[in-house]
Amino acid sequence: MSSTTATFPTKETDFNDYVTTVIVYLGIAAVQARLSIAAANITLLTKLFTNPTAPLEQQGWKEIYALHINPATANKNVTALLHILWRQKEATDPAGIENVLRAIYADIPSSALNATDYTTLKITQRKPRTAHKVATKNTVLWNSKGLGGGDVQSKCYPGGARTLNPSAATQRSTATKGQRPHKEATYNIRTLATIVKQGVAIPTLAQMPDPNGTLPAGWMLFIDTKASNVHHYGAANVGSVLVEFKQWHNSAHPDLDGPMSGPETTIIT
Question: Is the distance from CB of 156 to CB of 138 less than 8 angstroms?
């Protein structure tokens, strides 16, 4: 079932004009077939609209509305019957005209609707989804430092390409001096990290595993929602080298992820 809905008039005169038009429109066999409207719903809707030979309490909107707008026949009972027909036929049978139309519209596939349908039935036309913006070209700039006890703090900033730094101690980038950590708008920070002993070769960007796949043993994946964050690597890793790769990551639309940058290295203290 789709979620096709309509904006129904809230004034009696406007609703009368609307439902009179809709009854004629939905009575066209070609429209019923194109919109896949069940015959039972059309039968019920037609009976609710007009049923002149029935007792007063069972007559349709057309008959009750005529009584309602005639000063000679208008009264509280007629008004009550009109409002029941509008949204609820009977207390035990909640099938007023508006409710039946809601059920009919909800069953119509959005792909079947044309411009005339939208206008005549007052169906809410969904706005086309805004095209995704182009993925950011910015990389993540960051400064990591050991806090003691195996904890490492990283402060991140948006920036262009950063020179590979395979040294054992990350240096503060001049591009981030005086700045507060902040994120690229609409992005989180995705980090791939591994820990190696001092003196062991540092993995290169080309050797980094696929962050969308199964990570090899010894690799960790983090997604941080804040520009300044602390990760806990444990006292057992004090003195080892933390190797990090980072990128701007859009969790809802990974196709917009920025380029991966790194490696950057930090001594865990």
Answer: no
d(CA 85, CA 62): 10
Provide the pLDDT confidence category of residue 3 given band limits of 50, 70 and 90.
low
What are 198-221's pLDDT values in tens digits? 999 999 999 999 998 899 999 999
- Ordered by where they begin, the domains of the chain are 12-118 (no CATH), 139-267 (2.60.40.10)
Which amino acid is present at 38? A
* CA–CA gap between residue 242 and residue 169 (Å, rounded): 9
Cross-strand partners of 108: none
Is 0.85 surpassed by the pTM of this model?
Answer: no
d(CA 268, CA 195): 9
Peptide bond before residue 158 is cis, with ω within 30 degrees of 0: no
Residue 69 near residue 6, CB atoms below 8 Å: no
